[in-house]
């Protein structure tokens, strides 16, 4: 596993130094900025972060290749996002027990026309559910958001929002969770309660 921070959508930082961190258990990692190597580093003992502190921001792509025992082990790519165009929805699992207690956490991301996450998006996302389940909470991770958890509308925070879906006791069947935001293509996922 290799994870790049930060995102790579900084329209106000073109030409400015923007440090890049990669978190990985790899032995070595090489960072590429728009296809050019920014250098290969070895992991220090007990440190799972690789740092490139002198990267100059330019829109495009960051890619890391992580190595273990000299072999390519993991990669990750992040790209500069365009304008928000759509929502995507991803459940943490899609098969649930129809016991009235089982939950699925459905993460909604705001993405551009190419499917890249839009990290600064704050669109209002409205959730709905059809079938033998209820949306019992929504959230977004924003510590300054005081909207009540049962609200079916939640502003995205850092481009993300979450719906918590609970099955109904003794009610099996298909559950369709939908997410909509003004001006964006909506998203939906299908879950199964059995």
What can you see in these coordinates?
By secondary structure, this protein is mainly beta. The chain has two domains: 2-79, Immunoglobulins (Immunoglobulin-like); 86-193, Immunoglobulin-like, CATH 2.60.40. The protein is 0% helix and 54% strand. The protein has no helices and 16 strands. The chain has strands spanning 2-5, 20-24, 28-33, 36-42, 49-52, 61-68, 71-79, 86-91, 95-96, 103-111, 124-130, 133-139, 153-155, 160-167, 173-181, 184-193. The strands form four sheets. It has a five-stranded mixed beta sheet, with no helix packed on it. Strands 4-3-6-7 form a four-stranded antiparallel beta sheet, with no helix packed on it. Strands 8-10-14-12 form a four-stranded antiparallel beta sheet, with no helix packed on it. The protein is globular and about 55 Å long. The chain starts with a strand and ends with a strand. The model has no long low-confidence stretch (mean pLDDT 97).
